[in-house]
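Anyone up for a design puzzle?
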């Protein structure tokens, strides 16, 4: 995202003011360094600094974009390197883990529909058959 360039309300106000003062006299001078030449010089200094600042922001935005691209390229290359280690040594190898890969989980997966033997026994003892209907018998 590009950084917002800066403007200066102070500069805009000074430009309007010097234009008005020039309409009074192009050689306006109040003594003690208060004259149009010094005023114009200060305005030019601010304009130059503002221009340099905004140019640096643009350069910084460009550099940030290049940095992001380089990061993406390195991330892709890192992934290719890890996959090459996995291809060469295997994903279960110590070398794969040393290169930054995550070891595979060795767990057996149990299906959600199956019940353990103790759960099946408990269900039948509570009076339900496999169809879910109550088969309990009431004894006198």
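Challenge accepted. My sequence:
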């Amino acid at each position: 995202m590009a950084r917002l360039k800066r403007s200066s309300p102070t500069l805009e106000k000074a430009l309007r003011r010097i234009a008005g003062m020039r309409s009074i006299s192009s050689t306006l001078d109040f003594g003690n360094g208060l004259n149009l030449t010094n005023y114009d010089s200060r305005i030019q200094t601010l304009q130059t600094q503002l221009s340099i600042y905004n140019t640096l922001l643009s350069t910084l935005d460009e550099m940030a974009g290049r940095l992001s691209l380089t990061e993406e390229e390195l991330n892709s290359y890192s992934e290719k390197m890890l996959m090459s280690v996995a291809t060469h040594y295997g994903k279960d190898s110590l070398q794969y883990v040393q290169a930054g890969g995550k070891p595979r989980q060795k767990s057996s997966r149990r299906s959600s529909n199956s019940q353990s033997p103790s759960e099946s026994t408990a269900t039948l003892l509570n009076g339900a058959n496999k169809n879910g209907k109550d088969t309990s018998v009431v004894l006198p």
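A detail worth pointing out: Residues 32 and 45 are 20 Å apart (CA to CA).
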